[in-house]
TrEMBL record:
Transmembrane segments: none annotated. Pfam families: MGH1-like_GH. Residues 131-339 form the Mannosylglycerate hydrolase MGH1-like glycoside hydrolase domain. It comes from Actinokineospora soli. InterPro entries: 6-hairpin_glycosidase_sf, 6hp_glycosidase-like_sf, MGH1-like_GH. This is Amylo-alpha-1,6-glucosidase. It comes from the Bacteria.
Length: 453
């Protein structure tokens, strides 16, 4: 790989990911982060593998198997377990922080089950062999049963578990514009997107393997219809619904997770993309978790105004999937510049803007390294190439101009061999060398430059 500006950030990210790998029998997974979360986390490990595709296909497969082995089989209010549910975290002796006491295997997550389905589908589309997918079909059906029966809401029934069970899981994370906390049970907007995508993707997988799909697609249509009726406020999706179905109206990064899930129309996706680009959310170092216009905004909070690299990378990924290639690359470039200034991409840093400081302000207790932050660098590299792998088709549509100049990346693993892509500083594709048997489709804006021209 010829390193562009910021290449050191990608190199450090790869090293950090390798350092965080743990074994479960013959399989490996990425521990969430060090020092606080050096263990299996459903959501974190799934997003790490997903953001790292296509570089991490083997990691995706093994992560899926590890989590399938601890998938819920019975109802247990004390642990949050339910049949088909993917756990939140696994520890040897549980976890205690103040009044929060979690058991060794804890299922208090509203999104990991749908994300497991989405990763299985993504890995299959990236070339995971049928022989590795087929043994996971029983776990897929169980996960889909749980998603299908869920309304996307959560509430801690124990009184000592996680009050919030999406990725923003701090107690004060879900806030109205006036600063009030949302009352449970809460239905997060991004979970509606995850569930919709899981139902559609799960049906596609079952179809491909000759399995019945039941009413999965009809259920997905119901999720989309309810979302359209209830979540939109002031031209953007509310971050959640509270116990009374009142939209939690703070502009927040949650809406970015909807891009590419199939839940939004093209027009709605464009509206979300435009809202994310506003300066109250985009800091110059990445995407703030909460708008500066919210009364609860605090740039040094855990989830109410800080910047999380993985959260920004999910926005970058989604923008690319809906065709906003230039915006995706520009947002991703903010992450690379932040990582270059810090020396790596930590768990999070303050939401203080690049118009106020020359480098990101550290969050004192952030994990360094953090797996999904490291995977964020790989997702940004994918956005800088404009790369998308879908079945046996490779789509390369880089931004113009290239944010970091000429870029050549080799050794991208695909079934049958490695992929090499080179673009010049203007974003013109100069070279695509794909494995034999893989078609290449280049979405051009102006011209294709042959390597011999």
């Amino acid at each position: 790989m010829r390193r562009p500006a910021g290449g050191a950030v990608v190199g450090r990210a790869v090293a950090d990911l390798n350092a965080l790998l743990l074994a479960d029998g013959d399989d490996v997974f990425a521990a969430a982060g060090a020092p606080w979360y050096l263990t299996l986390f459903g959501r974190d490990s799934l997003w790490t593998a997903r953001l790292g595709l296509p570089w991490t296909l083997d990691l995706a497969a093994s992560t899926l198997r590890v989590l399938a082995r601890v998938q819920g089989t019975e109802h247990d209010p004390g642990t949050g377990e339910a049949p088909g549910k993917i756990p939140h975290e696994r520890r040897r002796a549980g976890f205690r922080l103040g009044d929060m006491v979690l058991p060794p295997l804890y299922y208090g997550t509203v999104d990991a089950t749908a994300l497991w389905v989405c990763l299985l589908h993504d890995a299959w589309r990236h070339g995971l062999p049928d022989a590795q997918v087929r043994p996971l079909l029983p776990a897929l059906r169980a996960a889909l049963d749980w998603v299908r029966a869920s309304d996307g809401r959560y509430r801690d029934e124990t009184g000592h578990g996680l009050a919030n069970q999406g990725w923003k899981d701090s107690v004060d994370a879900i806030r109205f514009t006036d600063g009030r906390r949302a009352a449970p049970p809460i239905a997060l907007c991004e979970v509606q997107g995850y569930d919709h995508e899981a139902l559609i993707s799960g049906a596609a997988l079952l179809d491909a393997f000759g399995e019945p799909t039941g009413d999965l697609r009809e259920r997905a249509a119901d999720v989309a219809a309810r979302f359209r009726e209830r979540y939109w406020v002031d031209g953007f999706p509310a971050m959640a619904l509270d116990a009374d179905d009142t939209p939690v109206d703070s502009p927040a990064s949650n809406m970015a997770h909807l891009l590419g899930t199939g839940l939004l129309t093209a027009d709605e996706s464009a509206r979300v993309a435009a809202r994310l680009a506003e300066p109250d959310l985009t800091s110059g170092f990445g995407l703030r978790t909460l708008s500066t216009a919210s009364a609860a905004y605090n740039p040094l909070s855990y989830h109410c105004g800080s910047v999380w690299p993985h959260d920004t990378a999910i926005a970058v990924r989604g923008l690319g999937l809906v065709g906003a290639v230039d915006q995706a690359a520009a947002l991703g470039a903010q992450l690379i510049r932040a990582g270059a200034a810090i020396g790596e991409l930590p768990e999070l840093y303050a939401g203080v803007g690049a118009d106020e400081v020359g480098a990101p302000v550290p969050y004192p207790a952030a994990c360094r390294p953090q797996a999904w932050s490291s995977a964020a660098a790989l997702a940004v590299l994918k956005a800088l190439l404009g790369l998308r792998v879908d079945g046996k088709e490779i789509i390369v549509r880089p931004p113009r101009p290239s944010p970091f100049g000429a870029l050549r990346v080799s050794g991208i693993p695909l079934p049958g061999g490695d992929l090499t892509i080179a673009v010049d500083r203007e974003g013109v594709v100069e070279e695509v060398e794909a494995p034999r048997g893989t078609s290449s489709r280049i979405r051009l804006r102006r011209c294709w430059r042959s390597p011999t021209s």
